[in-house]
Amino acid sequence: xxxxxxxxxxxxxxxxxxxxxxxxxxxxxxxxxxxxxxxxxxxxxxxxxxxxxxxxxxxxxxxxxxxxxxxxxxxxxxxxxxxxxxxxxxxxxxxxxxxxxxxxxxxxxxxxxxxxxxxxxxxxxxxxxxxxxxxxxxxxxxxxxxxxxxxxxxxxxxxxxxxxxxxxxxxxxxxxxxxxxxxxxxxxxxxxxxxxxxxxxxxxxxxxxxxxxxxxxxxxxxxxxxxxxxxxxxxxxxxxxxxxxxxxxxxxxxxxxxxxxxxxxxxxxxxxxxxxxxxxxxxxxxxxxxxxxxxxxxxxxxxxxxxxxxxxxxxxxxxxxxxxxxxxxxxxxxxxxxxxxxxxxxxxxxxxxxxxxxxxxxxxxxxxxxxxxxxxxxxxxxxxxxxxxxxxxxxxxxxxxxxxxxxxxxxxxxxxxxxxxxxxxxxxxxxxxxxxxxxxxxxxxxxxxxxxxxxxxxxxxxxxxxxxxxxxxxxxxxxxxxxxxxxxxxxxxxx
Length: 495
Known about the structure:
The protein is α/β, with parallel strands linked by helices and 495 residues long. The protein has a domain at 93-110 and 233-464: Rossmann fold (3-Layer(aba) Sandwich), CATH 3.40.50. It contains 22 helices and 16 strands. Strand 4 (93-96) and strand 5 form a beta hairpin. Helix 3 (53-64) crosses helix 4 (70-80), helix 4 (70-80) packs antiparallel against helix 6 and helix 17 packs across helix 19 (432-439).
């Protein structure tokens, strides 16, 4: 097995081992870490189909995290994918309405972020030991709703770590907010900002690249790392579930080995669909990568025109985890389609910072032929939830509904009947109000927990433990700050 090194999308001078890239989170020049090549799967799909989730996870992750020993990696996997998940399969597939829904929400916080954030703390603490890091690791992250709680749950009370999460005060669902502000653990700190997710994400990136702050941290025995999907330790575990989904379809004889599938992913920050792209590059037979956007359709416009332009109105939707105009992980794809030229990639990212937009060349666009952009408005999102529930008896959340709505439109336009996996990214109970308004618009209550009870009455889908346990949990985190005060707020907590 060939060792893989990681360098920045904006400059190839730094060559790091996987464990070092995981510890750093973000490259010092503001770029994202990418592998020097994407390795091919070295087990046949038939062999992988005979394995459980942990087995597939090891076979995929060993190829990209090459400086972890087998014992270390298997240990991290075993600690992550245990009884925190409420189903033995970890990521089951449900067939409904001409598609296979890959349920990625059976972890502790009922969202797909659990799939990676259950293992990241173990990868990170293992990486710290491997690299003789004595500093305390401070996880600094911005969230549009799901990453925050999943990261908090993963890192809470983990020795040698602290975690700080910034979220848009008015830009997450009531359940998402309640999950975060009730988080226990002396090493956790949750802050609402007066702004949107892009403000929070930009502020966090600024703190990462602040050299004076890094020196202050080091003098005080601390160093930053990230739990956002900008961290390669978040991205690699996400590749696993696409490989796993394909091998389950094989195992159940829904497809033959080597037959193509399509994948539909609802995405704002582009990390989840980028993982599917890497799975395809590793040899998984994915035909089309269908990128589903809500009304903040910056990615749809990019795939349609070749222009990325964040200069537009920011819209609050019923799928808030996708309310994003700066899709951080797209930078990794840009790097790959400009032939891994860090200089070209850096120029485009500087343009984005300076002007809010950039254009890719025709040659770069030609390398995006497997991607299809789609968008779904609010009305269609809610109609999709209602339609799938009434016609197929299957309940989905708003983000999954964006993907299902985009897929229905794609299928209608193209006639493409390739077996299709839709990434189902959150439990319907994470967005109870919106889901209930779609299937029972006459019900009225200001209490999200009353709505959860009503949703259970109608659907008989059990209320997850993650919702029931926060009903009466005390609020622990009450800090609110302005975007310009993020550094001061961070220092205040760390002191």
